[in-house]
Design a protein that fits this description.
The structure is a homodimer. By secondary structure, chain A is mainly alpha-helical. The first copy, chain A, has a domain at about 5-85 and about 125-135: Orthogonal Bundle (Arc Repressor Mutant, subunit A), CATH 1.10.10.10. The first copy, chain A, is built from seven helices and two strands, in the order αααββαααα. The longest helix of chain A has 17 residues, at about 110-125. Chain A is elongated. The relative contact order of chain A is 0.16. At the A-B interface, α1, α6 and α7 of A face α1, α6 and α7 of B. The structure holds FE2/S2 (inorganic) cluster (FES) (2 copies). Chain A binds a DNA duplex through α3.
DNA sequence: ATAAATAAAGACAAGTATATCCTTTTATCT
DNA sequence: AGATAAAAGGATATACTTGTCTTTATTTAT
């Protein structure tokens, strides 16, 4: 469905939204540990997310790290996918034809049409902030470790 | 969304269902040309589809080629995905967690739940035959060439 | 039986994604 | 100013996917 890059990018962004802030920036080691991802690879992906401050903000040096601005929190999840070059999932044809359109539909287009719309809406109407909020309040998980019992 | 292998497998299978039969077996060169796919690579994929006659049937030698049995025509599209080892799309978590379940939901699970069900149904309720029929009667396309004008 | 056609199988090449490590830059603190 | 902490950037390694080519096995037709 999504590439590893996209998966890590989404998990990392959600974690940063949940635990970080301007005065509590998160280090790459903490992030990678929290979301069960390979640290150095995740660092590379963060570079894509921070390019031009598009999604994630960062500062170097002591007490540096990653955080999200208020504006970034309002971005749709799709922004994360775009940052890692993975938004094909909401644009491409299931059968891999160059174009997906009503005027040139593939055999699965009819069946897929509505699903594609819903995928699109899921990634465009859901904001980073709303995902983080859900995660904060619930029993939602963002890594592969066992859920802690109370 | 899907791998190239899966895309070619689906396009090839649909084409064979549409144009082939026991007494009109299709050669790999014809198939690859028809669906705009690299011939040798497609041949490899056909080997996966014909393993144990799971989806596609084949015979070698003069007048040999690929075709579908009546039983195969009734298979769900999912069978093609399984043959190429690509059915993760209907089983895995969007965020790449090891498990996708109600008891251990990721932050996107709630939003994705219904889409996942629909994807599953699309691949399980649609048969190879029904796709071929749609393709046969309509203006549906299965390659990247321009649609012929009448 | 021999020849020819065709898929199957195997070996390899190229490209892309994933992962790790090392060096450089920048910011902070003393 | 100097030391230190942290991300950014670059170089490299590994694995997987995609694509090509050659050889082998099998079937059919002559
Ligand atoms: S043309 Fe294939 S999904 Fe739209
Ligand atoms: S747990 Fe992530 S989609 Fe179900």
């Amino acid at each position: 469905m999504l590439s590893k890059s996209a998966e890590y990018a989404l998990r990392a962004t959600i974690y940063i939204a949940l635990k970080g802030s301007v005065d509590n920036k998160l280090g790459i080691d903490e992030i990678a540990t929290a979301i069960d991802s390979p640290q150095y690879f995740t660092a590379k992906i963060m570079q894509l997310l921070t390019k031009n401050n598009r999604v994630v903000s960062s500062v170097r040096g002591p007490n540096g790290g990653f955080y999200l601005t208020d504006a970034a929190r309002k971005l749709p999840v799709r922004a994360v996918l775009e940052a890692v070059g993975e938004d094909g999932i909401i644009t491409k044809c299931v059968l891999g034809l160059k174009e997906c359109s009503e005027s040139r539909p593939c055999p699965m287009h009819e069946q897929y049409r509505s699903i594609k719309v819903q995928l699109k809406q899921m990634f465009e109407k859901t904001t980073i902030q709303s995902l983080a909020e859900e995660t904060g309040k619930g029993k939602l998980v963002i890594n592969n470790r066992l859920v802690k019992k109370k």
